[in-house]
Amino acid sequence: MSSCCNQFTPVFNRRDLLKTSATGFGLLALADLMQQGVRADRPNPRHNPLTAREPHFPAKAKRVIFLFMHGGPSHVDTFDHKPDLIRDSGKPLPFPKPRIVSGGTGNLLKSPWSFKQYGESGAWVSQVFPKIAEITDDLCFIKSMYGSNSRHGGALLELHTGSDTFVRPSMGSWVTYGLGTENQNLPGYITICPSLTHGGVNNWSSAFLPAVYQGTPMGDASTPSERARFPFIGKKTGGGARDLQRLELDLLNRINRQRFDDTGPDSDLESRIASFELAFRMQAQAPEVQDISGESRTIHKLYGLDKDATKDFGRQCLMARRFAERGVRFIQVSHSYKWDQHGGLKKSLPRNALEVDQPIHGLITDLKQRGLLEDTLVLWGGEFGRTPVAQGNDGRDHNPHALTMFLAGGGVKAGISHGATDEYGYYSVENKVHFHDLHATMLHLMGLDHKRLTYRYSGRDFRLTDIHGELVDDIIA
C-alpha cells in the first residue's frame, strides 16, 4: 500500500516550490503590510507608536481631561432645573416609565435644593455647586445626554468605550492611538485613582489595540490621592543605577528583538518593548511631575488642598493640570464610587458636591489663566442620570434616558446649554446626544474623523463609535 501511494506523491525541489507559490508569497507580504496598518490614518507599530502624529484636520483641542463622577450624579439636583417637578412633587408621573428600570420607584420627588441662574449665560445651577456656579460662562452644558444601559457595569463601559456589551478600546486609548503623545517621557493616557468596580481595568483598557495605548493608572480608587504613584517609579534614579538599568534594558531589548526577528510581526511584543523603554524614560520626569511641593500656596488653596473635604479630589485635579501642561494626551480623574444615591440623597449628594466643587472650579480657572484651556477639552459627567421619581423616600434610581454633562475649553462654545429633557427630567427630548455622539464630537475637536479612525481586528474595521455617532455641531465654536 505504501509503495502504491508513494508513486503518486509529487516531489518538489526548492525551485519548483518558489515557481508554484510565488503569488502566495506576495499575498503573505500584503497581509503583513495590512496587519501593520501601513495607512495614512494609522500609526505603524514598527516605529515609535507614541510619536506625536498629525490629526486628520486642524484640531481645536490637543488634550482631554475627563472628570468622571462614578455612580451617576442626579441631573435634576445639580444642573437641570425643573419647576414642574417642584410643583408636582408627590404626584404620580403623568406618562409611562421606561419598560426596563433598575428598581422600584414611586411618585415625583422635587429637588431638596434651590436653583439660581448665574453669569451672562443665565445657566441654572443648584446651590450644591456654588463654585462651579461662578464659572458657568466658561462651560458648555449638554442637558440631553442619554445612554443605552441602566446598570453601572454596562453604562461605564458604554461611556468609556462606546460598547456596553463587549470589551472594546477606551476613548483615551483611541485618542492616543490616533495622535500619539507630545511627551515621550510620560504615558499618552493616564488615569488617576481609577475605579476598580463596574468593569475596572476594561474602562481604561486598549483591548485589541496595541497595549502601549492602554491607560496607565496612577493609584486607584482605594488609594488616597496623596499616596497615588506610578507603580515602581519613585524618586529619581541616580546616574550609576540608571546606567546599569540602561545596560540591562539593552540586553533585554536585544533578546526581545531577536525573538521578533524570528517570529515576524508581533504587536504584543512590540508593545512590551515600548513599555519597557517608556518606563525607563519616565524615571527622569515622573518623580518631578508627581511632586507638587513646588506649587504655591495660592495654587494649593485654589484646588482646595487646604481643606480636608476637598484635598483628595483637589490633588487629582492639580495632577491633571500638571500632566496636561507636559503634553499628556488624555487624563482621567475619577471621583468614585459616591454618586449612586438610591437612598440618603439629602445627606450624600451635597457631601459629594462639596468634595469636587472647589477642585473643578480651581482646575478650569487655573487652565484658563495659564492659557491651557483653549486647547484642553475638559469633560465632566457620570455614566447616567437619576430618576425624577423617588426610590424610597430619599433616593433616586438609575436613569440612562437623561443626564447632564458639561464641557469646557478645547473648541466648544462657552456659556451655552444644549438640548433639554421633558418637564420633569425623565427623558432627553430636545437635541438628544448619545454617548456615541459625544465620542464623535470629542474626536472631531481633537482633529480626528471618527469614521476614519479605525483599527482592523479579526477581519473587521473597528472604531470608537462603531457604526454610530453624529457630530454635535451646535456646541462647536
Which fold name corresponds to the CATH topology? Alkaline Phosphatase, subunit A
Just give the CATH class: Alpha Beta
What count of domains describes the coordinates? Answer: 1
Query: Which structural class fits the helix and strand makeup?
Result: alpha/beta
> Residue-averaged pLDDT, rounded?
89
Q: Give the overall shape.
A: globular
CATH homologous superfamily annotation: Alkaline Phosphatase, subunit A
Helical content class: 25-40%
In quaternary terms, these chains amount to: single chain
Radius of gyration: 26 Å
One letter per element, helices H and strands E, the order comes to: HHEHEEHEHHEEHHHHEHEEEEEEEEHEE
Distance between the termini: 81 Å
Protein described:
The chain contains twelve helices and 17 strands. The protein has one domain: Alkaline Phosphatase, subunit A (3-Layer(aba) Sandwich). Helices cover 35% and strands 16% of the residues. Strands 1, 4, 5, 6, 7, 8, 11, 12 and 15 form a nine-stranded mixed β-sheet that branches. A two-stranded antiparallel ribbon has the order 2-3. A two-stranded antiparallel sheet has the order 9-10. α7 (239-263) runs antiparallel to α8 and α10 runs parallel beside α11 (345-369). It has 477 residues and is of the alpha/beta class. Mean pLDDT is 89; it is low at 1-10 and 25-40. The protein has helices spanning 2-6, 14-36, 83-87, 130-133, 152-161, 171-179, 239-263, 267-290, 297-302, 308-325, 345-369, 435-445, and strands at residues 63-69, 115-118, 123-126, 139-146, 189-192, 216-218, 330-335, 376-381, 385-390, 396-399, 403-408, 416-418, 420-421, 428-430, 433-434, 455-457, 460-462.
